[in-house]
Amino acid sequence: MADAGAKASRPLSPHLQVYRWPVTMLMSILHRFTGGALYFGTLLLAAWLIAAASGPRAFEIVNAIYGSWFGLLVLFGYSWVLIHHLLGGLRHFVWDVGAGFSKPARDNLARLNLLGSIVLTVLLWAAVLLFR
Amino acid sequence: MKTALGRVRGLGSAKSGTDTFWLQRLTGVFNAVFVVITLGIVIALAGRPHAEVIAALRHPLVALPIGILIVSGVIHMRIGMKEIIEDYVHGGPKVLAVVANTFFAVLVGASTLFALLKISFGV
Ligand code: HEM
Fold first, then answer.
1. Is A123 within a domain?
2. Using the 8-state DSSP alphabet, how is residue A24 labeled?
3. Tens-digit pLDDT profile for residues B70-120
4. Is any atom of ligand 1 closer than 6 Å to the C-beta of A84?
5. Which of A46, A106, B25, B119 keeps 20 to 30 A from A23, CA to CA?
6. ipTM score of the complex?
7. Does A16 map to a domain?
8. In CATH, what number does B16-120 get?
9. A29, A49, A59: best mutation site toward chain B, by most B Cβ within 10 Å?
10. Per UniProt, where does heme bind (chain A) (predicted)?
11. What residues contact A65, with CB distance under 8 A and at least 6 apart?
């Protein structure tokens, strides 16, 4: 007869709510999330170029919005999303050539993806704020 | 008379599949290169006066990488979003969403390229 303890330790079927999130799963979701965010984020570059082509008045308005604290916050978020997705894409290319499939390699690539994106984003903005 | 292979060739779910997979990788590589270049350009020009920005954007070595990123980017984002739509949206709304996706990609690509060329060739 199975007692309560044995019953509790039975494996559960994997499902989003009961699954202990492996870092690779988080990165998979983040790659899709950042891809979707970049999809709409393209409008930021589009608006900047279209305003520049329209003339000084339109360009000043866009510049003022992008330079406001809210604009800078959006641009900061956008830059992290872009860098995270870029590194995530490179991770996919590693797999595409047939490397990086072992458990430690997968986990390390995932951690490197997240850590690298945060470090590079902070460094980028530090460089911009210091030298521009 | 057709061979067994001839009868099924081109009859996959969407008659393609590996093509879009490959194109997503190819545009991904292009994006990686030209995102870095464009990021540098945009940072260098951020907050500068209009005339200075226009003068810089007129240079072919500045306009070309941005133009390549736009083309590669909209192809890439269209494929990516189509895949997301196909995973979560079904039936009639799916058809609408897929059409809207292409519409959005074409609109963004065309208007941004037009702006870039307008600057390049002067007003
Ligand atoms: C910066 C360089 C970039 C690289 C190296 C890259 C690479 C990739 C790769 C390899 C995939 C396929 C992932 C998979 O099959 O699961 C992907 C998906 C995607 N990318 Fe990119 N990409 C880049 C930039 C962009 C940009 C700028 C956008 C949008 C404007 C974008 C939007 C998307 C979308 C929407 C997906 C689909 C996500 C999904 O299916 O989960 N990517 N990217």
1. yes
2. H
3. 999 999 999 999 999 999 999 999 999 999 999 999 999 999 999 999 999
4. no
5. B25
6. 0.88
7. no
8. 1.20.1300.10
9. A49
10. 85
11. A71
